[in-house]
């Protein structure tokens, strides 16, 4: 089963605000760009 995730690397601790959580969610645009550029994302 394919899975995807985003990560944010930061030197400081980030507050878990709704905007922060939204930024970490994969959007349809993210998926479209990964397919368009034939990206292999490795974390």
Fraction of residues in helices? 25-40%
pLDDT < 50 stretches: none
Structural class: mainly alpha
Q: How many strands?
A: 0
| Shape, principal axes of CA atoms | elongated
Q: What string, H for helix and E for strand, traces the elements in order?
A: HH
- Strand fraction equals under 5%
Provide mean pLDDT, rounded.
Answer: 82
Distance between the termini: 17 Å
Number of helices: 2
Major sheet characteristics: none
Radius of gyration: 12 Å
What's the structural blueprint in terms of helices and strands?
Layout: H1 18-24, H2 28-36
How would you describe this structure to a colleague?
This protein is mainly alpha-helical and 43 residues long. The protein is 37% helix and 0% strand. The protein is built from two helices and no strands.
Keywords:
single chain; 43 residues; mainly alpha
A few lines on this structure:
With 43 residues, this protein is mainly α.
